[in-house]
Amino acid sequence: MEAIPPAPPRILIVDDDDSVRDVISVLLAEEGYNCVVANGAEMALDVAGEAETPLVISDMKMPGKDGLWLLDNLRERLPDTSVIMLTGYGDTESAVDCLRRGAVDYLLKPPKLTDLIRAIERALAKRRIELARKRYQKKLERKVRDRTAELRTAFKDIANTYQNTLLALVAALDAREHETSDHSQRVVSYTSAIANIMGIQGKELDEIGRGALLHDIGKIGVPDAVLLKPGKLTPDEWMEMRKHPDIGFQMIQNIPFLSTPAQIVLSHQERWDGAGYPRNLQKHEIHVGARIFAVADTLDAMTSDRPYRKGTTFANAIQEIKRCANTQFDPEVVRAFLDIGEEGLVRIKLEMAERKLKPLEAEARAQEAEAELERLTEEDDLELTPVPSAPPLSGNKVA
């Protein structure tokens, strides 16, 4: 079966001189072009809009609206239509101006048929390349949008699984200290609630939350005999216990997304009055996340049951924290803490009791997210065939 030849391109010829318009139309029709005509710029604009018109050949000077007016309106309304301007001798400035305003070429009147055919071929070839470039650009933009959305989802999943991995690690630490089950996660909730009251949002809030979550990670390096000792610690044992902020800091400081949480881990035992450890920092020398954590940690410690004592009420814990403002705690943090109120703090604890981490599920989600990220980064969908450059124009020089 023979292929159907493509339809000849539609060319609009615009000239107020009937004889010039008709001669050009007949000559181009004999060359196989589909020609339509218009006797003025306004009529030409209407005719060009009736059907796809790849090329307009227009006289520069016409009564009423001239060729430059037509060119400007075609560029605005039908930007994919190419325009060749016809100009008379001695009209050099207008010819150059039409090129600046978007015409693809110009010819002197009356044009030679060979010059006209070459100009048409150049104009149509340039138009095909420009259309191909636009299609390529749209396809590329669509690919980029799709890829960006996929990567954003994948990175969000990775961030969630990182968080779940940290939660699993901390759950293991809490399980090691039998009396503090879920302690770290509750402290994160209290810390985030206080930080929100203080106007801390976004990335800073996330980093403070991670610091609170990992505050006791350094206890990995504390011997069980010290960490789990039921009685009072000896001075030497106490020295071992006091090493855990620095141990935790050393463990995570070189992990890029944990660099700020590492500072909170290192400072979480400091006090507002400078009587804490390990660096005896005071007031605003202490990271704000560590200052917030100190209040949250004390609340949870006081209201949680231990083998050797029963947890106190939230009302008692609130009064004790209020009493220690300006000594153990940052007074600004204490004010934000008091704004949450007893009812709000109790609600946070109850909500935490309902949420339990599922380590196997978290691990599966991590593997799925990492596999998806690898697939996205290895795909070659964006390697599209390059579009060739447009050929240089060699329009006729004005004599």
From TrEMBL:
Residues 364-376 have a biased composition (Basic and acidic residues). Residues 364-399 are annotated as: Disordered. Keywords: Phosphoprotein, Transcription, Transcription regulation, Two-component regulatory system. Residues 158-354 form the HD-GYP domain. The modification 4-aspartylphosphate is found at residue 59. Residues 10-124 form the Response regulatory domain. It holds the Pfam family HD_5. SUPFAM superfamilies: CheY-like, HD-domain/PDEase-like. InterPro entries: CheY-like_superfamily, Cyclic_di-GMP/3'3'-cGAMP_PDE, HD/PDEase_dom, HD_GYP_dom, Sig_transdc_resp-reg_receiver. One of its GO terms (biological process) is phosphorelay signal transduction system. This is Response regulator. It comes from Stigmatella aurantiaca (strain DW4/3-1).
